[in-house]
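Chapter summary example: a protein plus FE2/S2 (inorganic) cluster.
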Amino acid sequence: MDSQILRQLEGYEKVTTDIEVLKRYGYDYRLERGLAKKYVERFHPHAIDVKVTDIINETNSTKTLRLASKQKYMPPFQAGQYISVIVEVDGIRTSRPYSISSSPDEIAYYDITVRRVEGGMISNYLLDSIKIGDSLQVSAPAGNFYHNPIIHSNKVVYIAGGSGVTPFKSMIQHAVNTGTEKEIWLIYGSKNDSELIFNDYFSKVASKYTFFRYIPVLEEGAGTYKGFITKDIIKEIVGDSSDKTFFICGPQAMYEHLLKELQPLKLKPRQIRMESYGVPADVFSQPGWPKEISQNTRFVIKVRGKKDFTVTAGQPLLQSLEKNHIVVPSLCRSGECSMCRVKLVSGKVYQPEGVKLRQADRRFGYIHSCAAFPISDCEIII
Ligand SMILES: Cc1cc2nc3c(=O)[nH]c(=O)nc-3n(C[C@H](O)[C@H](O)[C@H](O)COP(=O)(O)OP(=O)(O)OC[C@H]3O[C@@H](n4cnc5c(N)ncnc54)[C@H](O)[C@@H]3O)c2cc1C
Ligand code: FES
């Protein structure tokens, strides 16, 4: 940078004085150059090249992939965080987030546990095409779905649906491996008992440790609790809820159901932590969706300086961009992390309830492309 401009920067005088003092007392400050960058890259690398070292069959529809780093170092994470798996399938570069299901104290690898989604692009690819020894690229761990002892109670109720149990496996295994002062309930909703992921592990932990109680709630078949998870079941299992923190993770439909069920318990907002497992599968039934727009409605998307293409209503913008070979960085794909922001120059998009857009983004016309559904022709800038 030009030295004239440097002199005008706030703090310039102080920095130059400090450098002179350090030189005088024999400390070679140049040794520190690049140190901060080195640590940032070590703990928050942009991407990690990993190898699949093991594949474990969990249920008929679910497998765990064990991922070890080719660089021999996996950044630390908090139990409950996720990584984004970056892949190219049929010429389309895309990514999907998966919670880490192994415990943070297992430092040599990350496990991800993938359940098949009918017709899903990446879950089927990971389950059917990936073999031991294959290479993948993943993001550094991300997300804030973890226990914070300053804010959260040590009495925690985990409520899971389907593959939403994976972050809880990490949390529970961490508690087992390192010891805990917590009292933990896991209420796990599933279609039937053959679909319960980690059922044997949770049952064993519950029979050995008094801090952990495991309660499957099954839609079909035998079991103490049947149907969906309701306020009555929660009340019966955990008793007084006023001193507990609730962590909820599962498909979008489960949140809508559970938030209604939890209302009569009069929990404070900080007592509920939710991990969103993506945007709603059926956006047409969401509140506020314009009724005149159906699955047959088409719009033109103009990406300034790149290309124009046509989309069908009901697809998130990010997905349409990827299908048209325009890569936008993404992480959570559920409207939370801001990674996939693009500027909406003209046109309208529908953003489901719960999309966390910063005030500044709203003001300057930015949208989260992973959770924005075009409802008119649009022009965007990436
Ligand atoms: C933070 C986070 C953590 C996640 N962790 C896990 C995990 O540990 N294990 C896991 O299996 N999945 C997890 N997911 C979901 C995962 O990221 C993918 O969405 C899922 O694997 C489907 O991807 P796909 O490419 O196969 O389906 P897509 O091709 O993206 O979608 C196909 C259709 O299925 C619907 N759909 C997408 N996801 C689901 C779902 N989960 N249930 C029902 N319908 C769905 C879509 O809306 C679409 O209509 C997580 C999601 C988030 C946001
Ligand atoms: S990828 Fe996180 S907000 Fe879109």
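Key point: The mean pLDDT is 93.
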